[in-house]
Amino acid sequence: MTQHRRLIRRGAFTGAVAIGAIVLAGCSGTTDDADGSSSFSLGFPVSNEEETAYEILATQYMDEHPDVEITINRMPGESYNTNIRTQLQGGNAPDVFLSAPGNGQAISILPLGEAGLVEPLGDTAAGLIPEGSEHQFEVDGTVYGQPLNIAAAGVVFNQTAAEAAGITEYPSDWQGVLAACETVAATGGSFFVVAGAVGANAGMMAQAIAATRVYADTPDWNTQRADGDVTFADSEGWADTLQAVVDMNDAGCFQGGVEGAGFDAITNGLVQGTSTAMFGPSGTTRDLTQAADGAATFLAETFPPVDAADGVFGFASSTYSYSIAASSENKEAAHAFLDWMAEPEQAERIAEESGTLPITGYADMDFTGTAFEPLADMLANGDFVPLPNSDWANSAVYDALGAGVQGLFTGQKSVDQVLADLDSAWGE
Prior knowledge:
Blueprint: H1 2-19, H2 21-25, E1 40-46, H3 53-64, E2 70-76, H4 80-90, E3 96-99, H5 109-114, H6 123-126, E4 138-139, E5 142-143, E6 146-147, E7 151-158, H7 159-164, H8 174-185, E8 190-192, H9 199-215, H10 221-226, H11 236-250, H12 263-272, E9 275-281, H13 284-291, E10 298-301, E11 314-317, E12 321-324, H14 331-341, H15 344-354, H16 376-381, E13 384-385, H17 395-410, H18 415-426
Parallel strand pairs: 1-2, 1-3, 8-9, 11-13
Antiparallel strand pairs: 3-12, 4-5, 6-12, 7-9, 7-10, 7-11
């Protein structure tokens, strides 16, 4: 019965992909059934046809609660943020949906909470928020998102493909990156594969590079920018970050046609082994391993520093959360689901199924032999900060970063122009 229900819901998505955002904008929450069951809808982004951790946990919930039917809304990752925001404003969003902590995206918790588009949550959600991250989940002391896990974000590395191309180890510094690009290019492939047509992935690349160029030396750079003490335009670190994008493009580090590529280029390039690394969340290691049928080893890495002596520094935080739409007619059922998700067993399973770390207890884990082994010292030593855009003034800044990197790919933007665009998007 459970498998049959899941096939019905996923089958409905196939048409939605084909006809795009119009159909997605029409998805809405279900109402409680007349027989008293507590059903609701769940929305999240996808980049391929593989079953996600969100579906796996939803199916488990239905197995444990036979009176509940969860309607799954799988939405294309490229348009998820804008579609969810549109649906929330239109009052027809999924009851529960994947949101993001902080302030930097269209699905970020703070602007959604300030706009009254999401439901206040209670002590259960508040108790899961990592210490020091309360400001990313609360508006005036009210919590609007429940963190799901801890994820690192940076580079995902196909060790198997790299070795086949003649690279024996991941680069430890900037010169090593350029050398690796040359080595893989000589085989007809590319060291990095980027979904250049997708602003979010282009922006993710720039953030990953900025980890050691900006945040290693100035972990509170975002706070300083918010206070007006620094700007993008006067930041040597951000200038170096964007110049690195230009230099890598000139060095053949990216696949051909990078500026027009979508997420499928990443999946195809890494699974087929024509590219060896991508920019994105660490959880992608699990998805890619499954897509490659276990024939390749994927590792979570950080972008190398300019000099190896500078050491590893990266990003790790609760990058995704669940929120409840304020317009939901099934809030009681939605809250019950979030309470269940907060239980340790579910917290551990969603981390396992998504290739991330559980929201609590990760500091005591042994990463030997796992995809996280390269990040073990970084996590143990606290050499990381949350993903930068989660603390930026508004989603327009991240949009400007993604568009700016796209302009660097095509030569239509200079480094100075992109920096100025970022400050303009930030505002005061």
